[in-house]
């Protein structure tokens, strides 16, 4: 596991975007796993900037981690009143780059048979050849995607009830400004499973800010546990990179080691 610590959110975002851009340049038909939330917005902004300078997304496919159950993209509503993750992706990335709409996948929160849809989603990932790089955040409760505490570490794409902390966090970040009451927020989501995420060839996890410091320390340096599903990064058999700002890294014990490894890798061009 590579842990890269950057001075602030902007530098964290630039670093994550550069990792993604390097893959897009070397494999123009790569499959990206994408994430929503406040954390990756800066990374998407940077990718949009790179696109304006020529980065070509026309051959790539994307699969998003999750979507709220019961809502779908509604372009008739203003952006701040459509809380679907499909809308988030459209506004924050897809409409600003040259990706083909048919190559983008977000679980359908309005699926009539959600469990069947989950199986279909898994099948589409397989048909695309698997995910080359999966971008991930971490929830305040330690979740990866919407794999809430207690989710099996080998779970697949499925419907998952949301944890109270997740509802509170997402209310503060997104729903409050739309005037939605907390009790009216979706209480379920469709989420890729931890087992699905662990099949990606490269997992890139981002976190910023002091409020993520404790949960990052538990996920990276604590015990592997389904109570902090992001700790499954310790189980990932492929390449793993964690990009943090200084504040999110502030409770890690092995910072000197991570910096040492980063220096070595730079020196030996690994
Ligand atoms: P955030 O959410 O980026 O809004 O903090 C992260 C997550 O829930 O994975």
Q: Portion of residues in helices? A: 25-40%
Q: How many strand segments?
A: 10
**Strand residues, percent:** 15-25%
CATH architecture of the domain at 11-197: 3-Layer(aba) Sandwich
Low-pLDDT runs of 5+ residues are none
Rounded Rg: 18 Å
Q: Which strands sit side by side, in order, in the main sheet?
A: 1-10-9-6-2-3-5
Secondary structure class reads alpha/beta
Question: What is the distance, rounded to the nearest whole angstrom, between the alpha carbons of the first and last residues?
Answer: 13 Å
Q: Outline the biggest β-sheet.
A: 7 strands, parallel
Question: Any overview of this molecule?
Answer:
The structure is a single chain. This protein is an alpha/beta fold and about 270 residues long. The protein has a domain at about 10-195: Rossmann fold (3-Layer(aba) Sandwich), CATH 3.40.50.1360. It contains eight helices and ten strands. The strands form two sheets. The chain has a seven-stranded parallel sheet with strand order 1-10-9-6-2-3-5. The chain has a three-stranded antiparallel sheet with strand order 4-8-7. Helix 7 links the parallel strand 9 and strand 10. Helix 1 (about 10-25) crosses helix 2 (about 40-50). The two termini are about 15 Å apart. About 45% of the residues are buried. 2-phosphoglycolic acid binds near residues 37, 38, 137, 138 and 173.
């Amino acid at each position: 596991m590579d842990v890269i610590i950057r001075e602030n959110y902007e530098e964290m975002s630039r670093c994550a975007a550069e990792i993604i851009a390097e893959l897009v340049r070397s494999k123009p038909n790569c499959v990206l796993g994408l994430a929503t939330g406040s954390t990756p917005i800066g990374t998407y902004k940077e990718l949009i900037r790179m696109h304006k300078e020529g980065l070509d997304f026309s051959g790539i496919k994307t699969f998003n981690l999750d979507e709220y159950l019961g809502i779908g993209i509604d372009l008739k509503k203003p952006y701040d009143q459509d809380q679907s993750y499909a809308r988030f992706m459209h506004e924050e990335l897809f409409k600003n780059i040259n990706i083909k709409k048919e190559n983008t996948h977000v679980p359908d929160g309005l699926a009539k048979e959600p469990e069947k849809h989950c199986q279909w989603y898994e099948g589409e990932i397989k048909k695309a050849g698997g995910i080359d790089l999966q971008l991930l955040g971490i929830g305040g409760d330690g979740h990866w995607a919407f794999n809430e505490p207690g989710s099996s570490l080998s779970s697949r794409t499925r419907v998952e009830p949301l944890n109270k902390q997740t509802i509170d966090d997402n209310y503060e970040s997104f729903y409050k400004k739309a005037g939605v009451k907390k009790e009216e927020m979706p209480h379920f989501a469709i989420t890729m499973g931890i087992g699905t995420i662990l099949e990606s060839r490269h997992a890139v996890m981002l976190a910023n800010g002091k409020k993520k410091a404790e949960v990052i320390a538990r996920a990276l340096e604590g015990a592997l546990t389904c109570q902090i599903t992001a700790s499954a990064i310790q189980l990932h058999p492929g390449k793993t990179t964690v990009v943090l700002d200084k504040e999110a890294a502030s409770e890690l014990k092995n910072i000197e080691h991570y910096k040492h490894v980063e220096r070595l890798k730079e020196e030996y061009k690994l």
